Structure prediction request, 196 residues.
Amino acid sequence: MADSDNSTTLPSVTHGRGQRQMAHGVDRFDEADPALALLQGWLRAQHVSHVLCRLQQRLERRVLDAAAPDAMDKKVGYSIACQAEVEATTAALKLQDKIPHVKARSLLGVVAKLEIIAGADRDIDDPTDFPWPHIASVLDDLKKIAGRLPLERPERSVVQGDCRRYQALAADKVGLKKQTADLHLGQLATIGIKSE
Prediction:
């Protein structure tokens, strides 16, 4: 609060790890402000969704570039990647839906909720149209008053674990595990190799 004239004392939410606890490799905020935990989860889901989107785009390129016999294997991987991205995006949307039900306990909590609201629409609408520049202005003002959000990017191993989890969900959802096994057996038979 060094750059603020406001003398209101804020609840104890700091940038240090003293206010955090590690649970199953996930950085979680304690119960000081559930809106901060909601933002942390949403940012993580968004990040994983973007990582999976890039993977899906790379696989799509490989499918388009693949020769006919190799294309089927690549299509299976691409289908899983597409569905995994959908799973991660759905997780982020479910966290967004919780905003009205989570009560902020600090100005930083209010900032966290606005970050999700503004962040959710950045890719959809024109950020120069009303009300987005206005919301961004209010958000900047609140950050100057309340301070920076105590957030960190998730560790690479956490993101990779989330990606694997969404890929497994995707494979189960579209039933591709069995199809992949059948595909390999079928391909062996079509090129004259007997499976054992």
